[in-house]
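Complex 199.
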Amino acid sequence: MTKTVLKTVIFISGKGSNMVALANACRDPEFPAEVVLVVSDNPEAEGLVKARDFGIPAICVNRKDFNRKADFEKAILERLGGIEFDCICFAGFMQMVSGWFLEKIAPKPVLNIHPSLLPHYKGLNVHDRVIQNKERESGCTVHYVTPEMDAGEIIVQKAVDVSPEDSPHTLAEKILKKEHVAYPEAVRKIAENSGKTIR
Ligand code: GRF
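Predicted structure with 5-O-phosphono-beta-D-ribofuranosylamine bound:
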């Protein structure tokens, strides 16, 4: 039988709940992806421990060890050099990457998840701004990463209702639950369109 398995590297900076959602999805033998490596820019990221609990190799390339972003990106590329992978997923990875980095990865796709209905509410402090503006709907978006922040083509979007009682905290929790469904859905789409088949 032939099967598609997209070898995925996940970049994190913190809790790593989206990474856990992806790793859980990959436990299903029918899911067309596997997580081959987790990379953190932050040695304190809780997600590093969670990844190792899944038996996934997890490394840190500490952003603070580098003055220049270019040197940080070179160090990541060196670590990726020895690894076979098809796709990178940013999951709560709090760094922007350069066009140079993306060109080095291309044609492999780089994905990101953002907690708003892009193209609305790019950037940080999304939930505060959504509530301040009394929006009735928000959500999350999985999109391709480009050098411009939160601007690449959209792969999957999921909406939630914003109620007048919501605080930034309750809204973040509501949206995070949707993120955990949206990211595996997006990775499945990428895998199914990759044309990559193994025996
Ligand atoms: C998520 O809301 C994600 O959309 C944003 O940062 C948060 C990361 O959460 N970019 P986690 O680290 O995956 O738990």
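The chain is about 35% helix and 20% strand.
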